[in-house]
Specification:
single chain; about 450 residues; alpha+beta; 4 domains; five-stranded antiparallel β-sheet
């Protein structure tokens, strides 16, 4: 151990160097020039080696500092055999390196935990700095916007320019609602912002959530409440009017034998008026009963059912109407099991087929195609497409609103009821249409 002692090593090297210089001097005195050259080379080598050995501590300190700067805490120094003072110093360096290593490991664990937490939440999260560089974009955001690589805010302009403008303008505490279409899917985003500084660096944290489903549910609930109130009031008003008009109409008929020539015309007018009131009251009553269907959708009875069987039953029911309009109905590769309420899903497909048949009026080669596909999120998609006249953008936005219809004899509840049934299944319905080309309804289960 003593031979590894730093002080001993230095003293030994100095003694050897001193002896070498003495020998070199002796060779010069006795004119032994060839030997003096050899000794001189040895003196130079010993001097360089002594300087290198003494300077080793400085090199170790430099290496230690560089390791700290580069966050490399794996360097370990031998902390024994160099003398008491050096042993303590190297032990301290190892302890400092170990402490930094522990801090680094704790920070890494904390970072991984926060990263997993951010990735776990379903809300889309985006963080940008003052230069609009993206520092954080979780998987929920990438899935929402269908973009795997996000480097800067400008890269989101390919998704929607208005969304990028909103992100730039929104400030701390604000919440804004925007609409955008991603991969032909309509999204209604709620955007919330927070701004803060870390070490004099500005950051803006954005959270986004697609609230389309929630808005659709709230909208349908609002319509149902309105319909219930209106139906109740209308029924309460119409029922006595209908009953009274029917009674009066009956009384007039019973007293028909009491009529004279002078009051015959008055009877005819009274009879026709009462009959008109009766018919109109019954019509209003039936009208109200029809719209009450929107508030009376039965509870689900979920079963594992084959989609092919459901569509086959619908096809049988709709055969007469399809043949009447000479429509070609093609059902492609729909042999797949789904968990739904079969009766309600039949109602959905009947409504969509009736809607397609109406859109195909006047078409020379009318056709309806039903097929399935996989959504990018893994959901099953059922496509019902026709080659009809198509729907313009303004009408598309209103197509699922109760009572809205483009058909002369339509009630405006078919598609609204279809959407309500799918909401009960926690499913969605999307619409793609081009004027003059056709319309496609997509059910996402």
């Amino acid at each position: 151990m003593v031979f590894k002692n730093f002080r001993f090593q230095v003293i030994l090297r100095i003694i050897i160097l001193t002896l070498s210089i003495t020998v070199f001097s002796w060779c010069l005195v006795y004119a032994l020039y060839l030997r003096s050259i050899y000794v001189a080379i040895a003196v130079i080598i010993l001097t360089i080696e002594l300087i290198w050995y003494v300077d080793r501590f400085n090199r170790d300190i430099k290496t230690f500092m560089l390791s700290l700067m580069q966050r490399d805490f794996t360097t370990h120094y031998q902390d024994t055999g160099k003398g008491k003072s050096f042993d303590g110093l190297y032990e301290l360096l190892n302890r400092i390196s170990g402490a930094f290593k522990k801090i680094s490991a704790e920070k890494e664990i904390q970072f991984r935990y926060l990263e997993m937490l951010v990735e776990h939440v379903r809300i889309s999260i985006l963080s940008i700095d003052a230069d609009e560089k993206i520092h954080l974009a979780n998987q929920a955001l990438k899935a929402l916007l269908q973009k795997n690589v996000l480097t800067s805010l400008k890269s989101l302009e390919s998704v929607d320019v208005s969304m990028v403008k909103t992100i730039r303008e929104i400030h701390t505490g604000e919440t804004r609602l925007i609409k955008l279409t991603v991969e032909n899917e309509l999204l209604q985003l709620s955007i919330h912002a927070s701004e803060f500084k870390l070490e004099d660096r500005y950051y803006k944290l954005i959270s986004m959530q697609n609230i389309k489903t929630e808005l659709d549910i709230r909208e349908m609930e609002a319509w149902q409440k309105l319909i219930r109130v209106l139906s109740h009031e209308i029924m309460n008003s119409v029922s006595p009017i209908s009953s009274l008009s029917e009674t009066l109409h009956g009384m007039v008929k019973e007293n028909n034998n009491l009529l004279t020539t002078s009051n015959a015309s008055l009877y005819d007018a009274l009879d026709k008026g009462l009959e008109a009131i009766k018919i109109r009251s019954e019509g209003l009553y039936n009208f109200t009963q029809t719209y009450r269907k929107l508030t009376g959708v039965p509870k689900l009875s979920l079963k594992k059912t084959n989609l092919k069987e459901i569509l086959h039953r619908v096809q049988v029911l709709m055969t007469a109407k399809i043949n009447e309009h000479k429509i070609q109905l093609r059902i492609l590769e729909v042999d797949v099991d789904i968990v739904v309420d079969p009766e309600l899903m039949e109602h959905v497909f009947i409504n969509l087929l009736l809607n397609a048949i109406d859109a195909l009026k006047g078409k020379s080669d009318p056709s309806i195609h039903i097929r399935i596909s996989k959504h990018q999120k893994g959901n099953l998609c059922i496509h019902v497409a026709d080659n009809g006249e198509g729907i313009d953008e303004q009408t598309i936005e209103k197509i699922f609103i109760p009572f809205f219809t483009t058909r002369k004899n339509g009630s405006g509840i078919g598609l609204a009821l279809t959407k309500q049934i799918l909401q009960l299944h926690h499913a969605d319905i999307q619409l793609k249409s081009e004027v003059g080309i056709g319309t496609e309804f997509i059910i996402v289960l």
